[in-house]
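for the record, two folds in this file. i put them one after another cuz i was lazy. first one right below, seq on top, structure tokens after. the second one comes after a little note so u can tell where it starts
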Amino acid sequence: MVFDILTTFPESVEGPLSYSILGRARETGVITVRVTNIRDFATDRHRTTDDGPFGGGAGMVMKPEPLMAAVEHVRALPPGPEGLTIVLSPQGRVLSHEVAEELADQPRLVLVCGHYEGMDERVIELVADMEVSLGDYVVTGGELAAVVVVDVVSRLVPGVLGHPDSSTLDSFAGDGLLDYPHYTRPREFRGLAVPDVLLSGNHAEIAKWRRRQSVRRTRERRPDLLRTAKLTDEDLGYLEDLEEEKEQEPSSGGRAAVPPDRPEEGQP
């Protein structure tokens, strides 16, 4: 898979994409990441890529001429016009596991990094197949978002991860639940022990425990995911059990419980 990143700050993306799993994937040719400097397509001696906005206002806007020239140059590179051109923007579709799966099916992604107050809207209208956002916040530039997109999508490309099933076991993957807790040596650490079931060697019980932990954790931390998660009858029964446990929990009636060795205020 090919990732083309168009940016005015190439150094900000090269570093994070040159180490660990992504670095190895690039070295072995499983993925290709090419970084293009938009400033190389500016026509003035100062290599200007931004200008003041029409209508006034704060900040600068990325100029259309160098942006379009850079995109057209990159699109002509192998594998040609195939793939999607994506503008990284806080106004775009929020990146999720579902979106990453869609993007991983493409042979090539062209990622255009916005900066300053954004880019001339005409460029977006002319080249963008999709706009993608990391979430409901604004970062200083699209470079951070581009690195995240490459990382998230690359994990789904066969051959990038060492274990072929690793990405299917991540949070949000598969059945749409959060991941279960993980443990390694030592068996006890600062008074906290590894759950006995994980040491039992009973793979059926381990699988059952992990599934229930995923369901419990999703219910506690991201209950919104349960609306679309692929739940089994056993999962639904376990959720009912958790609800009953919650209803049976003692209520303090709005007052904090007083430890038995500490009398309430006013008592001797």
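(here's the note) second protein begins now
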Amino acid sequence: MTASQSQNVPHPVARKFGWWDPRRWLTAKELTMLVVLSLLAAGLWGFIRLAQYVETGEVSHLDRHLVLMLRNPDDPADPIGPLWLEEMMRDFTALGGTGVLTLMVLAVGGFLAMARKSHAALLVLVSVVGGVLVSQTMKWAYARPRPELVPHGAEVYTASFPSGHAMMSAIVYLTLGALLARTQANPGVRAYVLSVAVTLALLVGTSRVYLGVHWPTDVLAGWALGGLWALVCLMAMLWLQSRGRVEEDTDEPAR
């Protein structure tokens, strides 16, 4: 088959889906950019809507219902489920704590520095520190009280909105997961790594509601803002890498 003939052969996906294949109109780069912009818009819209709701100073029936649903109706101090589940939820919430995330970021930053990727290590640190500043600024701006419907299952020291654990776990795990996924040539391995990162962030946020220290809308806002910030930082890293200002974090696929 000649080069000109091969150009006329439709892509396998195009042969299967025909007119519905988006690659009939968009290049891979354009399609990726469209997906990224859609995710950014969705995250920003979600956070703005939740913030507007919080500004009213009201707690919705759904917020109250979900918090109480996770407690024993006869004893609000007792979370539903066996004791081992309550202890496991404390373990999950610790995965989004300052100490665990700090150790993880420092460990990854140290690894990148030892691998002679000091600019990438610095960008990871700046991304996380920036996320902390955004989280604390939002907490100060909205100053939403913590839930008082049930006794707290963990110590709290700051305002409720957005959930710092949910936001920072999304930033750290999604950022590090995306960096690790970019070092893998196998699409299945990439999907697995990203799935683990998303699962960790979801477990941390869910545990905050289970322990009664956050309203569900706090956690949703933390996930939205954390995912948005992680995506922005990842796009910034890719842009800097394309210009040689940050070391590449991918290896050539094995041949």
